[in-house]
Structures are given as C-alpha cells and as structure tokens.
Amino acid sequence: MGDVLNKGSNLFPAELVTEMFNAVKGKSSLAKLSKANPIAFAGTEIMTFNFDREVDIVAESGAKSKGGVTATPVTLVPIKFEYGARVSDEFLHAAEEVRLDYLKNFADGFAKKLARGMDIAAMHGTNPRTGSASTVVGDNNLDSKATQMVTYAAASADENLNTAAQLVIGSDGEVTGIALSPTMGAALSGIKVNGVPQYPEFRFGRTPENFYGMPVDVNSTVSVGTVDYAILGDFANAFKWGYAKDVTFEVIKYGNPDNDATLGDLKGHNQVYLRAEAYIGWGILDAVSFARVVKPTEVTITAAANGTSGSVTSTKIALTFNVDVYGLKAEHITLADGTGSATKGALTGSGKNWELALTAVATQGNVSLTIADIGGFDFPSTGTTVAVYKAS
Description:
- This protein has helices spanning 14-27, 29-33, 96-124, 142-145, 157-170, 182-189, 235-238; strands at residues 9-11, 44-51, 69-76, 79-88, 149-151, 177-180, 192-193, 196-197, 210-211, 214-218, 228-233, 239-243, 248-252, 271-284, 290-294, 297-298, 301-305, 316-325, 333-337, 341-363, 365-371, 377-378, 384-388.
- By secondary structure, it is α+β, with helices and mostly antiparallel strands.
C-alpha cells in the first residue's frame, strides 16, 4: 500500500473505500435517510411498478377482470465527483507510515466533500463547487421533481412539516424521513406554548436523530440556494443511490492539473497534485413521494382573453407566468366583476402557460383576476385586469 502515492493512476484500497463511504453516510442527509445500492459503472436500471387498479373479488367460476401494471425504468447513472489539492513533493520521499497516514487523511476529507456534494447535486441540481446548475445532473434532483410544496413560516414550522407530510400521504406515499435546514431546526426550537418549548431537542443547536419517531437530519446542504427549508418523504423506498466501487487516486507530478494560471507548473514549485475521483449515482423513483417546505417564489402574471369586441364572445383567458407553476387549480382563481362580468370554468395547462375556460360572459368589459397563494408561490395581491368580450 505504500506505493499508492507514488504511482500515476491507482485505485483506493477496498478497505479505504468502505471507510470512505461509511463517512459519507455520516455527513450526507440523503445517505443517512436512504440505503446505498451497488451500481455498475455503466449505470443500474431500477424498475418501478404502479399497480393501476385494486384487487378483484371473483365469485366461484366467475370471470376475472383486467388488472394492469405500469412499469417505468429509472436508471442510476454514476456521475464523476472530483477533488484535488497541491501539496509539497517532500511527502513522496517520506516513510511509508507517513504516506499511508496522508492517504487516509485525504480519503477522510474527500469523503466529507463527497457527502456534501451528493446532497447539493441530488437535492438542488447544482455543481457544488461553482454553485451553478449542472447540465450533467439535469432535472435528476429533488428541487426539480418534488413539486409538492408548502410555504415556510417560522412561527408555524411544525405545521409546515405536517402539511407537507399530508401532501405526500394524499398522493398515496409515506414519509420515512425528514431533512431539515439549520434555519428550520432553529425555528422548531423557538416554538413555545405558554412559555414552554415544544421541541427542546432542537434547542441550543442540537441535531436530534429522530423527530416524532421518524429519522431526521439537520444539514446546511438542505438550504443551499436559499429556497428549501425542509425536504421530507419516502427516502427509504423512493430515493435510491449508490457508488461504483472503483475510486481512483492519482499523484500528478508535472504540469498544471488544476488549470490555475497563478500557481503554474507543479515541478517548478516543488509540488505534486493529489486527485481523487468517485462515481455516485442516484434516482428519484416516485416524485410525489416527496414534498418541500420552501421560500415562496414571486410570480408575475400576464393574462389576456380571446374574442373580439362586440362580435366574438371570449371563451378563455390565457395565463402566462414568469416561472413554472405547480399545483394550480381553478379553485385558486377568482374573477371579480368590473365593467365586465364573466364566469370561470375549467383550468388546463402546466409550467408557465395555462388557460382558464370561460363558461359565460354576462357583460363585456374588464374583470379582475386574482390567484390565491399556493404552496411555494407568491402571487400578486393586486388583481390583474383582463378585458373580456361579448357578441352583440
């Protein structure tokens, strides 16, 4: 093992890889709340099965009816995570024990960075180092797929969690774990009834292992991007992750491997570069098995009805938002009479573009459209004026 730091490209010893990912489980909320599954370097496919109907009771000699299963594949594709650092080349000539200690310490530090990196990427879809959206991760992250949301309020943080849990349960899911931001943990610690703290386990910055008998983890990775305060859901069954066993470790003696123009060539500065690379993959098997407590996104609205003044009656209002909106229903929309009057119908659409049907226009003129705040979105409190038309 003493040669590991002297060779060009190597694999971490198997025992160190095991220790490394045990450390990851201790520092990553996702790894703590869900179990790791071994994955192939080329990716591992997991089939999710949705049984479309209930079981059938069949009389003796009776005919059996159709059941049905919808099978959807989810592939855990390993993504490369890399970390490197420049060190003095003196350690190359040190005793074997010193070099081995160096390797173990580097592995430990790399594990902690991996843990944090996996959370940030799988929760928010961002590159941990740059803070920008990762094209490699794409929409394979909880912020993109977990569109059931509750608006955060510090004074009622416990009710926020309960409401989020009910969203999951209402979607036929179950809650097996909760990941909290430190801000959410602090909010829970401050809730009192008659001066008595209701959740003392969170006071003084403590991070309990369980909350109402459910696994919980308080981690700053939850709030990266300043949107999420909590993510809860079926981490045990609906989120899967794993790693390829080959974790590479490389000692680079020449060149400028970190592309730092200021630091320049390694040899010219009596340095070597230590680089480790690991491959981690994850998959969200059922998006509605998760919900998030979030800072609401401010929404702007553009609304316009079809029709022609005096000749063609309006039948719909087109709604365009500045952001993708989820969970919007016709019951959230109010049409108030102005100079005009109309009756709303069904709502269709998704994302930024929606249409509200009009079942009748009683009077041609302007109506005021308002949308009630729904979980995760902050709609304008002032109504949007929309002109509706009626044939003479």
